[in-house]
Amino acid sequence: MLVAVLMLSQELFRKSYPSDVSDEEWAFVAPYLALVREDAPQREHELREVYNGLRYIVKCGCPWRYLPTNLPPWWVVYQQTMRWIKAGVFASMAHDLRLLLRQAQQRPHAEPTAAVLDSRTLQSTPESGARAGYDRYGPWDRFSSTSPGGHDGAKRRKGSKLHLAVDTLGHLLALHVTPADAGDREQVGHLCEQMQQATGDSVEVAFVDQGYTGASAADAAQAQGMRLEVVKLPAAKRGFVLLPRRWVVERSFAWATRFRRLTRDYERLASTVAGLHLVAFAILFVQRAVGLLIPSP
């Protein structure tokens, strides 16, 4: 009993971290996170502090067990995070924030009619498991034909591949995690289906790079009521070239790398990789919404 009181006092009177949620942001996210009543008997820690613990993990990238002791215990933060991810809390938050931000930026349509697709390979770690080329004893041989993990030949690395779809403002529409050896073309149908479910079949065109060329990708997109438009490199490319439309999704990947937990694949489950990316985008978008809608003093 005394230990519980001391832990609670540490949470209530601790010095804030830069990753902590602000009062304005908390006013928006609290209704999404409250899966049970505030006075529920099973709740022993402040919900806001549990959310602060999650933000600390994602932003700073430390292992769960390294969570500071003046935040709720790591197992409390971990278990509640898994409940939030399974309940689709952060996906709902990202969806509503996208609508809010599009309205604040005076876009003509509440839902987008165009999207941008791309993928990014996350370097594996021993925690990544068989999905990214590790068994319980260590890494598999990268050149072995029996390796169960994903090796991205183009990037020359083992890991997981994050497939991302955003609107033309960079707001999240859909994401999907696979082993790194999964081809981009094979994931088009899955991403397009997610996009149309999230937007109510409003997306008409998706801009992609040359890795999505071919009839199979075009047919998969067409089956979901949209067409693929390949943005090609100029014939006389010299140095870095900023491609129209394509740079938007690259910027979204750069936003995600601001969160150290997302710079590599540190998760055992692909669903956790996807869920923590949803957390990061929700954090970014609620900060942007507060900045746009609430004037600074």
Q: Which tags fit this structure?
A:
297 residues; alpha/beta; Nucleotidyltransferase, domain 5; 2 domains; six-stranded mixed β-sheet; 8 strands; globular
How would you explain this protein's 3D organization?
The chain is α/β, with parallel strands linked by helices. The protein has nine helices and eight strands. Strands 1, 4, 5, 6, 7 and 8 form a six-stranded mixed sheet that branches. Strands 2-3 form a two-stranded antiparallel ribbon. Strand 4 (151-152) and strand 5 (157-167) form a beta hairpin. Helix 6 (188-199) packs parallel to helix 7 (215-223). The chain starts with a helix and ends with a helix. Mean pLDDT is 84; it is low at 1-6 and 136-148.
CATH homologous superfamily title of the largest domain: Ribonuclease H-like superfamily/Ribonuclease H
The fold-level CATH name of the largest domain is Nucleotidyltransferase, domain 5
Main β-sheet description: 6 strands, mixed
User: Could you say which overall geometry the principal axes of the C-alpha atoms support?
Assistant: globular
Q: Into how many domains do the coordinates divide?
A: 2
Number of strands: 8
Please trace the helix and strand order, writing H or E for each element.
HHHHHEEEEEEHEHEHH
CATH class identity of the largest domain: Alpha Beta
Distance between the termini: 43 Å
Number of helices: 9
Which CATH-level-2 architecture of the largest domain?
2-Layer Sandwich
Helix content: 40-55%
> Residue ranges: pLDDT <50 for 5 or more in a row?
1-6, 136-148
